[in-house]
Write a structure and sequence with these properties.
By secondary structure, the chain is of the alpha+beta class. Bound molecules: iron/sulfur cluster.
Length: 62
């Protein structure tokens, strides 16, 4: 599984970081940093919840 983040869309509110702090962090420039772009399948449920929580649909699991 791969996490893709569209940093151009990200508004930096940090919902993803709040829901899955091991995988997302809002960086100093106010946009998301993906900490692990290729997480294991065991994290799919948590990551899907974080992706769904993004208010601007900047995140995608592929
Ligand atoms: S939830 Fe979406 S908009 Fe907010 S920091 Fe994460 S990627 Fe950016």
């Amino acid at each position: 599984m791969r996490i893709e983040a569209d940093r151009g869309k990200c508004d930096g509110l940090g919902m993803c970081e709040a829901m899955a702090p091991d995988f997302f962090e809002v960086g100093e420039d106010g946009t998301v940093v993906v900490l692990d772009e290729r997480p294991g399948e065991e994290h799919r449920q948590d990551l899907a919840a974080a992706v769904d929580a993004c208010p601007v649909s900047a995140l995608r699991l592929t």
